[in-house]
Backbone:
């Protein structure tokens, strides 16, 4: 995003950012209210941190204001409680979050509309579920017409 690459470091609970143009690293501690599960997303062209708290079954969505400054995380909103949610799986590219409900059904929470939609898939017992984000794009090839 904007010439930078970002990673979450779970052991140290920080965001590591690399700025390609000047080859500089930034380390930004994540907020202390982040608990059990957290992931990065892009919301409104900003780096967002989405954290899920299993005890309260709530999501906290924060955006980063300035790299390297723990205090620059701004909590936008809290979603929940979501008592039917067992655990989040992945954050999509447009602010959607895929969850497993307590009945093993796969659901999708759209943060823009705050609507939950069933995806028509139920996780089988003792299986591990993987979700991969796939972006299909067709790039023009020089000298070839469609």
Residues:
């Amino acid at each position: 995003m904007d010439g930078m690459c970002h990673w979450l470091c779970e052991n140290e609970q920080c965001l590591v950012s690399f700025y390609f143009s000047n080859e500089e690293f930034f380390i930004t501690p994540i907020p202390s209210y982040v608990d059990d599960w957290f992931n990065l997303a892009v919301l409104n062209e900003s780096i967002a941190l989405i954290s899920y708290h299993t005890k309260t079954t709530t999501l906290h969505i924060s955006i980063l204001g300035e790299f390297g400054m723990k205090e620059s995380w701004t909590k936008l909103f809290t979603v929940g409680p979501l008592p039917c949610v067992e655990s989040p799986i992945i954050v999509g590219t447009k602010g959607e979050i895929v969850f497993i409900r307590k009945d093993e059904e796969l659901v999708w929470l759209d943060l823009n509309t705050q609507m939950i939609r069933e995806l028509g898939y139920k996780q089988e017992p003792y299986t591990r579920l993987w979700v991969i984000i796939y972006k299909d794009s067709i790039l023009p090839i020089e000298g070839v017409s469609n």
Q: What stands out?
A: The chain has a mean pLDDT of 80.
